[in-house]
Amino acid sequence: MSSKDVLIADLYESVLRPDQIPDVLDRINQQLDCDGLHLVGKDEEAGSVFASVAVGSQISGAERDYLAHYFRIDPRLAIGLASPTGVVVACHDFLDDRFVSGSEFYQDFLIPHGPRYVIGGNVYRRGGKNIHVAINHLIGRPQFSDEKRAAVSGFMYHLSRWASQLFMADEVRGAAAAGFFALETLGQGILILDDRQHVLFANQAVNQLLGDVLTAQGFRRSWGYGATLRDLFKQVTADRQARSTTVVHTVGGRAVSLLFSLLPLPREQGIGFTMPKGLEAATRAKAGGTGQEEAMLPGGNASVLVLVRAQMDAQATGSRLYQQAFGLTAAEARLADALAQGHSPQAYAERARVSIATVRTQIRALLAKTGAVNLRALVVLLASLPKASR
Fold first, then answer.
1. What's the angle, vertex CA 305, arms to CA 240 and CA 265, rounded to 5?
2. CB of 159 within 8 A of CB of 143?
3. Each residue's pLDDT tens digit, 8-65
4. Which long-range contacts (CB under 8 A, 24 or more apart) does 226-233 make?
5. Does residue 223 sit in helix, strand or coil?
6. What whole-number distance in Å separates Cα of residue 382 and Cα of residue 310?
7. Is the CB of residue 152 less than 8 Å from the CB of residue 135?
């Protein structure tokens, strides 16, 4: 396999690993024996740049000025849009010396930074969003030869397909992220376990219900409840039949009966998502960031979905339920009930005719007694408790 074949394979692989995009583009620049490559994503409707990856010392040094002003008057973008996507165009075919000598873009920006001749074109256009690639020769180097054009053309075809795949991958990641956000904010406790009983996902509600029993690598002491849940897990994974059991657990210093429902997940739909943010991640990586800001489910494939709910006194409703669950005072329980119904602290203060300072003091007491880390987590926890009709 030639070095070009390896490079093209790495380009497509970077769709799933966007932090590698700057390195791959830099290697393309070197393979072509050019002096810098700049990938620009522009939103035509907003008149803004949504992605920028510049490689090559001369080009990287000019990127800040470009993003601050010069992308608005870049004549190369219009040339790219006037040609089919993936087709190589050279600026010197359209812009003569007279144009260059009178162009603010060339005279005040591009040439002072070193580049003189540019080749490239548009590699993606959809819904007003366009991605362009500009490859440069510095002052002192000749125009792009026919041989160099052919070499660039070989990469432009792949860059065009790569850009489309990058957007499709980001759409998939967005859908996955939305799904996990829904699980995260759901009032009911949610766990996703692999076949080794390691935790692949745990939402806020289950973290509040189980506390330090839950760890990044699974449950301490093999679920922490003895043989009951271990055996139940083995049965569910063996015959793929759902099962439930009740376990007494301490939540906020109070003994609470937790209902565990174990549901088998289809084996062919195992979960192992990594969700980086496409070109945004590449831009962060080029700027010195890690490029790894992502939501990840580590470990093996998902095997069992565990639903966890607290079972309280069937007759308990509203504030009485919260008093039972967490040992709250009557005033704290009334506030907890209001928060669970979606009222803001300010709205509750006005309705109860107490100061907002008093409400904030009560919220601090609620956080301490329930173990919730913040107000949002508190509301999730309160909403997770089953209630009879009010």
1. 45
2. no
3. 999 998 887 888 899 999 999 999 999 999 999 998 888 898 889 999 887 888 888 8
4. 229/260, 230/197, 232/260, 232/262, 233/193, 233/197, 233/262, 233/304
5. coil
6. 10
7. yes
Query: End-to-end CA distance of the chain, in Å?
Result: 70
Q: What is the DSSP letter of 181?
A: H
What is the C-alpha separation between 27 and 279, in angstroms, rounded?
Answer: 17
Instruction: Report the percentage of the chain scoring pLDDT > 70.
Output: 76
Residue identified by tokens 């890690």 is 290
Give the list of residues 6+ apart from residue 370 with CB closer than 8 angstroms, or none. 208, 251, 252, 326, 378, 381, 382
Give the span between the Cα atoms of 295 and 180, in whole angstroms: 9
CB within 8 A of 42, min separation 6: which ones? 48, 49, 50, 71, 77, 129, 130, 131, 132
Give percent of the chain above pLDDT 90: 24
Burial of 386 (0-12, 13-18, 19+ CB in 10 A): middle
State residue 151 phi and psi, 5-degree precision: -65, -45
Q: What is the pTM of this model?
A: 0.50
Nearest Cα to Cα of residue 269 among 318, 305, 294, 239 = 305
Residue position matching structure tokens 């500009």: 134
The candidate with the shortest Cα–Cα distance to 56, out of 15, 115, 107, 5, is: 115
